[in-house]
Specification:
The complex is a heterodimer of chains A (367) and B (127).
Chain A (H helix, E strand, L loop, with lengths): L7 H6 L3 E5 L2 E6 L3 H10 L1 E5 L4 E6 L3 H8 L12 E7 L5 E9 L4 E5 L4 H15 L4 E4 L4 E7 L3 H5 L15 E6 L2 E6 L8 E7 L6 H9 L6 E3 L2 H10 L33 H10 L3 E8 L10 E4 L2 E12 L4 E9 L8 E6 L2 E8 L11
Parallel strand pairs in A: 3-13
Antiparallel strand pairs in A: 1-2, 3-9, 4-7, 4-8, 5-6, 6-7, 9-12, 10-11, 11-12, 14-17, 14-19, 15-16, 15-18, 16-17, 18-19
Chain B lengths: L7 E2 L4 E6 L2 E6 L1 H7 L2 E5 L6 E2 L6 E5 L3 E4 L5 E6 L2 H4 L3 H4 L8 E5 L2 H5 L4 H7 L4
Antiparallel strand pairs in B: 1-2, 2-3, 3-9, 4-6, 5-8, 6-7, 8-9
């Protein structure tokens, strides 16, 4: 039985094509993936991301637990700050990538829907093994989460929110009260655009959200709903990793180019093998590729240097904003410099591809 | 979703329209909607032999890549190269501008044995 988010009825009313995703019934698209992608870049979109895991961590030794499980050092993190981090296994492979936020009374960890069980298990196991005084509470199904993304979003939503979203810095957040319910507003997202992510009580969906939703269904609405399809093409243009593609149990964060989210000066699970990799440099690296033709390189497609397989594709798409076929791939480190000429093997038809700078897309007016 | 009555179908969602000894092939609106935004159609060369139930090309969309089939055997006499520049026409106009190949066939019996519009809808559960 698939789980449904509090927005399920809205998705159906908005004409969504629903698909199973990580145990949830989610909207793939409403009007069309490319149309929703372009609308996000031009104006703004609302994505239901209530399927993502939301864990509250509390207790006297919450910081100790977080610092053992996360690659990032949270010691200096202040209330109102969010940080991207990895959770690694003892071999340095990635269990999940998460956003960790410090609120007044608790820490919040937002994780991938597909990894929620693994993340809860990791925190619980580490806590129990080390006898750490901390509590882990899964708030996923009692809350809702939306991502509002696009250049016109902040102006559109500022007046509706109980906190001053314009004053929030990137990766800053604030919690306010709306209709006697808590609502946390984060200046973050997964599209390469400015915007906000909101977490609030599931019960608010039928109150606060109703007004916004009714407006969104008008054809001239500035904010329109967008589904998982557009979320994927947007994040890929912005070169943001997706667990199961760029990251997995056997991939380390350093090869993925995420060393900025790994603090090797503290001890955490997986730190020893990662120190070794950092010392010698990763043997393979995640690169951005631009293909010479329109074809889409899917996950696991081989990447060639001459006739030799030197890597494989993690994600690829025909980028709607850039009008180019792009991909992210792991390749032998010596082929990773920007400008390297490689090719992609589409079952025998070999298409040239060049290593390019990531992100593929950068918004023209960063907030 | 109705499909045109003037052609014949495969369960794998290709339509076939006969004029003389030439069969034009494309995919149904249902298939185009399932694929979502089409980004690329791999077309065969003029003169290529195609045969029933063997893949003659590929179609790629933002979401997926699928093989393309044909229900008759013959020789490709024309391919819709407009799709190289504007593959989205497969989504917007699958039964006209979104045609893919024209094939010269030897035997119209093969064409007549393909699914009618109503049989296609029945076979795919979209009645």
């Amino acid at each position: 039985m698939l789980l449904r988010t509090p927005f399920y009825d809205f998705h159906l009313a908005a004409g969504a094509k629903m698909v199973p995703f990580a145990g949830w019934e989610m909207p793939l698209l409403y009007r069309g993936i490319v149309e929703e992608h372009n609308h996000t870049r031009a104006a703004g979109s609302m994505f239901d991301v209530s399927h993502m895991g939301r864990l509250h961590i509390t207790g006297k030794d919450a910081i100790a637990l977080l610092n053992l499980v996360l690659t990032r050092n949270v010691e200096q993190q202040r209330v109102g700050q969010s940080r991207y981090s990895l959770i690694c296994n003892p071999a340095g492979g990635v269990i999940d990538d998460v956003i960790v936020s410090k609120d007044v009374k608790n820490w919040l960890v937002v994780c991938n829907a597909s990894n929620r069980d693994a993340v809860v298990k990791q925190f619980t196991q580490v806590r129990d093994e080390r006898g750490i005084n901390a509590q882990i509470a899964d708030q996923t199904q009692s809350t809702a989460m939306v991502a509002l993304q696009g250049p016109k979003i902040i102006d559109e939503i500022a007046d509706m929110l109980p906190v001053e979203v314009r004053d929030l810095k990137r990766y800053g957040f604030e919690t306010g009260i709306y209709m006697m319910s808590r609502i946390s507003v984060f200046r973050s997202g997964y599209t390469g655009e400015d915007g906000a992510e909101l977490i609030f009580s599931a019960g608010l969906v039928n109150g606060m959200f109703k007004r916004l939703a009714e407006r969104m269904l008008d054809s001239d609405s500035i904010i329109k709903p967008a589904g998982l399809g557009a979320r994927d093409t947007l994040r890929l243009e912005a070169s943001m990793p997706l667990y199961g593609h760029e990251l997995n149990d056997n991939t380390d964060p350093l090869s993925a180019g995420l060393q900025w989210a790994v603090d090797l000066n503290k001890d955490f699970i997986g730190c020893q093998p990662l120190r070794g990799i950092a010392q010698h440099g990763p043997s393979r690296k995640l690169v951005g590729l631009e293909l010479a033709e329109r074809r889409i390189a899917r996950q696991a497609t081989p990447v060639l240097a001459g006739q030799t397989v030197i890597g494989q594709v993690c994600s690829g798409t025909f980028a709607p904003t850039l009008h180019k076929s792009i991909a992210m791939a792991y390749v032998d480190a010596k082929y990773s410099p920007v400008g390297t000429e490689l090719s992609i093997d589409f079952k025998g038809s070999v298409i040239p591809a060049k290593v390019v700078t990531m992100p593929f897309y950068r918004r023209s007016n960063p907030g | 979703m109705p499909v045109p009555e003037d052609r014949r179908y495969l369960k794998s969602h290709e339509w076939h329209k006969l004029a003389g000894d030439i069969v034009t092939v494309g995919i149904t609106q249902f298939a185009a909607d399932e694929l979502t935004d089409v980004t690329y159609v791999k077309l065969p060369a003029i003169g290529a032999k195609v045969s029933a139930d063997t893949s003659w090309g590929e179609i790629e969309s933002v979401k997926a890549t699928s093989d393309l089939y044909i229900g008759v055997s013959g020789t490709v006499v024309e391919a819709n190269t407009e799709l190289n520049n504007n593959p989205g026409v497969v989504n917007n106009d699958p039964y006209n501008g979104g045609w893919m190949i024209k094939v010269k066939i030897a035997d119209t019996a093969q064409f007549n044995a393909l699914l009618s519009a109503s049989d296609y809808l029945k076979a795919t559960g979209h009645e």
